[in-house]
């Protein structure tokens, strides 16, 4: 794996990243950081980093691309892949793969659909995936961490205990979702143990470079950094499809319309995206729009696909 | 424009289509035709046709690929393109571009979102698009027909008056949607006139060959058959994105997961799909699954992307 | 029938009404008149009238108690009685008798419950009742007018053509409800004809005195002013029950809690109420609260039951 | 307090109760006992008991009127009274007093209304009331038990530990409700402690005689058995109003229509009812209809108000 230093690279993506960073720099308005836990609220919304990883592990970056940030919901993609690799299609009997409509529907849909969440990227669905990975491995969060370290080559990558503790302290809504699904028999583990695993996953700190590399298996149609296969080609395609239709909260349609790539955002301000067969991206800027996606992050990805023509559409 | 006869073609797509047709032929279970109007209920669910159009107008086909069928909601794509070409982004202030969640939400979402439908492919959204095209042209259905004839090169392509009359006779639900949106000021034309335009559009009869050709402007990034530009590259990408996230009723996630192409289905049993920059497809088989998509049609497209690797993911 | 002039009466209810009127007079804040049609928007929110009718037809009144106002939804009670008298319990297969929860649910409930509205006092339910009375009589609005004239003894009581025309002009939402129920087969008459009947009923102009007298059959357990029986004792009890649980829009619980009487309000600012076996009341003041009930009207009825102890609880 | 033996009474209500019991005995079809916990599922649906308590404590009864049964949601009335007596109107800022519409709405309404449940008799509302009583007393369940013993004169009345344990074991849905409201700041106590209090209240075993006597304070306008006042006259009226509009799950409208009395049912098959100023009733038969109310219980109360004319309407 070759990590290219931003300043010395003469390859394709570097000038594009630098041009995007300049444009973002000149753009006023960055949204507001998430404020439900102190660690996120303290972030400066003007921070900005972006990285592109080629299939061979070459990484280009700009701005704060090596600064670790709170990955939050981005890790839902990796947990999904790790569980899908283990149990295959049976997973889809416990979680759907349809967009959820607007946020206001989350609970009514769970009720209407008998405790089966709509997709693995809404909180209810991610709780189910974590629950199933936990049953199969005994340590869902540990599996996630090992995978992220291996794919990124960054062995220092870790959970943030303060963030996990803050999530737990404000975790009543996720507890409600888990108990509600448990009432339908769709949760196997005790709710407190499940929440502990879930909040640790959300607390992973990683940089744009780390996450672009860790996402590469989806651009390589299921093949890991070491050449072994995690997912079948078909499963990798499936995860990309779920990312495109469900990966950016209630703005999946808008993200597809503007960016046109499979992507997954987190309230820490990060977004990962996949150009199947070509490269992966990760962008970070903590200011969010009202739907929970990074304002500068979406704008940067929009520019990237416009400048390179690398949209899937 | 060169139409290749199925039996004589030696080019790339023909053997793939023939293999798919054989597999579909051997597959039991085709779903049931739509039964809310007599013309659809009378269709034989074992009919099957499929066509692929290359960017230059070459068409490959198999089975009933030249048999006209009731296009129904497939025409929503063309009406959207015709209106978007005229009014541009202002359209998006009157209709969203997010998936709608499940069917049960259609009315509650309209109410919750003050009469702005979620996307142009649910009935409420298509009524808004038709209303706006009607205001701009005075004959929305006529514009649609002219466009379809020009792109397909089939001047015999026409409305089916019996189907339009049947739709009107069972049109109370669409009338309810239109009046409801009118109560929010989101419909300009008188409801009966709007419904007349809308039901005529749904009644267009066309074949797989016709529709594959008529869809080609989306694979050509906005350029029509005669080389003139209907949409900007960006607008063509946007329509593809909306098709992927919203094109197959409440199964958009599943369609993306299985097929991985922008597509739009109709309850007549047709589905169109786009491989941006490469080709377009249309498949027809009248038997529907419980979500209103052609059973054999989805299966055939699934096979196509698996065999060719031409998914966007 | 003896109509007592307010100024000369020495009987029981008169001093109570006068005391209430004084208190209301001193109370600031009257809410705002309905503004969706000009005739209602023009009303002075400080107008106030109140009447009590004893079972023998003696009427006491205060303030604007003889001033005709727009009855609006109050007439739903009479239409219900006229239809129930004709078809009996079969009506309840087409409309429920449960409170509707909040307004936001109206359409979703119609959808969830297959076009059967929750109760006869929400608009959807009143449309069904009018539709059925229309089928049985050929002139639902005419039947209503004849009944109101007979019970009140006021032969000048009539529709207001301007109000009916205004309602029609802003009638898209009711048209949506009617078409939606028609799509479930729960409407027999053509929607435009039904709406004409419905809006004429809403347009009846009547005074507090008129309406208190017209409501008396419910306090007399089903017996009309002329001594003939319109409803069985059981049916009269049923209508009172439906008024108590469903009569004041989404504030039925609050109205029961504060006033404790079966009642029905209209957006014209009127409210009728029943003390079974004892008397009936009608109060009018055009300023509405955010749930569509007359602010001074509810306050006056609250005072009445507190001062007299004539609540049902 | 004088308890009349059923066989020797010659007073007013006794022959009516005996007639009702005979009619119920001859009526086939009793519904099915609740089956979510073993203790309820084991009940014989043909058990039937009914008691009437006059204001002076005289009790009439028939059938299994002295047999203790699982009170379940009936105790929500007493917990409400105990908390309302302590905190007064402030309670209503934390729980509404409107009917909830149908069951399917429970969670969506909580979400739509920011964690404020619609009324104190749905589970979410009862959890809030218990939470508040717990905060004020430190032992909500103990307060309830002391009150029921004092009013019924039955010092043996107690919780059923097995029932409470069963409720806890199947308590995920109530845990979900409590955590969900906690996420809006509408729950003060830790959720596990709250649930313990709540499930103990549901587990109280009491007979028809016990409950008819314990309910008498609502017929006496707020005065307890020992002559002290628990509630103001106005508060007693308020609780009666909430019982009438919200006391029988999603059948409040139907119960008002058929019975016409304030009432509260439990899934143990019991129902209490109030004739304000006159008497109280309790009926028990474990077979439930699909909305959770005792089939024979509702039928018996319907007969009672028809035979005696003691409906509030």
Task: Characterize the structure shown.
Four copies of one chain form a homotetramer. Chain A has 13 helices and seven strands. Chain A starts with 12 loop residues before the first helix and ends in a 5-residue tail after the last helix. Chain A has one domain: Beta-lactamase, CATH 3.40.710. Chain A is of the alpha+beta class and 313 residues long. In chain A, helix 7 (161-169) crosses helix 9 (191-202) and helix 8 packs across helix 9 (191-202). Chain A is globular, with a radius of gyration of 18 Å. Mean pLDDT of chain A is 93; it is low at 1-10. Chain A is 47% helix and 10% strand. Chains in contact: A-B, A-D, B-C, C-D. At the A-B interface, helix 11 and helix 12 of A face helix 11 and helix 12 of B. Chains A, B, C, D: Substrate binds at residues 73, 123, 167, 174, 198, 249, 267. Chains A, B, C, D: InterPro entries: Beta-lactam/transpept-like (IPR012338), Glutaminase (IPR015868). Chains A, B, C, D: Belongs to the glutaminase family. Chains A, B, C, D: It comes from Streptomyces osmaniensis.
The profile of the biggest β sheet of chain A is: 5 strands, antiparallel
Helix content of chain A: 40-55%
Annotated CATH homologous superfamily of chain A: DD-peptidase/beta-lactamase superfamily
CATH top level label of chain A: Alpha Beta
Low-confidence stretches of chain A: 1-10
For this entry, what is the oligomeric state of its chains? homotetramer
Tell me the number of structural domains of chain A: 1
Helix tally of chain A equals: 13
Give the N-terminus to C-terminus distance of chain A in angstroms. Answer: 30 Å
**Mean pLDDT of chain A, nearest integer?**
93
Strand order of the largest sheet of chain A: 2-1-7-6-5
Radius of gyration of chain A: 18 Å
- Run of helices and strands of chain A: HHEEEHHHHHHHEHHHEEEH
């Amino acid at each position: 794996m070759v990590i290219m230093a931003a300043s010395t690279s003469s390859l394709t993506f570097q000038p594009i990243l630098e041009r995007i960073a300049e444009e973002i720099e000149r753009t006023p308005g960055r949204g507001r950081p998430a404020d439900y836990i102190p660690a996120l609220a303290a972030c400066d919304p003007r921070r900005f980093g972006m990285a592109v990883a080629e299939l061979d592990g070459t990484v280009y970056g700009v701005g704060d691309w090596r600064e670790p940030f709170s990955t939050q919901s981005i890790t839902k993609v990796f947990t999904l892949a790790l569980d899908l690799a283990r149990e295959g299609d049976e997973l889809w009997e416990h979680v759907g793969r349809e967009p959820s409509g607007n946020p206001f529907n989350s609970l009514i849909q769970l009720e209407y659909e008998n405790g089966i969440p709509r997709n693995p990227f809404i909180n209810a669905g991610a709780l189910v995936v974590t629950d199933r990975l936990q049953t199969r491995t005994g340590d869902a969060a540990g599996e996630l961490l090992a995978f992220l370290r291996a794919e990124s080559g960054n062995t220092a990558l870790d959970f943030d205990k303060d963030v996990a503790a803050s999530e737990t302290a404000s975790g009543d809504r996720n507890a409600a979702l888990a108990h509600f699904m448990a009432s339908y028999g769709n949760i196997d583990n005790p709710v407190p143990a499940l929440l502990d695993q879930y909040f640790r996953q959300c607390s992973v700190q990683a940089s744009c470079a780390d996450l672009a590399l860790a996402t590469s298996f989806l651009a390589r149609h299921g093949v890991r950094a070491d050449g072994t296969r995690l997912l079948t080609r078909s499963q990798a395609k499936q995860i990309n499809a779920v990312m495109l239709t469900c990966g950016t909260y209630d703005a999946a349609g808008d993200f597809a319309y503007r960016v046109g790539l499979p992507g997954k955002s987190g309230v820490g301000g990060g977004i990962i995206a996949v150009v199947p067969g070509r490269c992966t991206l990760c962008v970070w800027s903590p200011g969010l729009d009202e739907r929970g996606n990074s304002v500068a992050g979406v704008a940067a990805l929009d520019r990237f696909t416009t400048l390179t023509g690398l949209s899937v559409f």
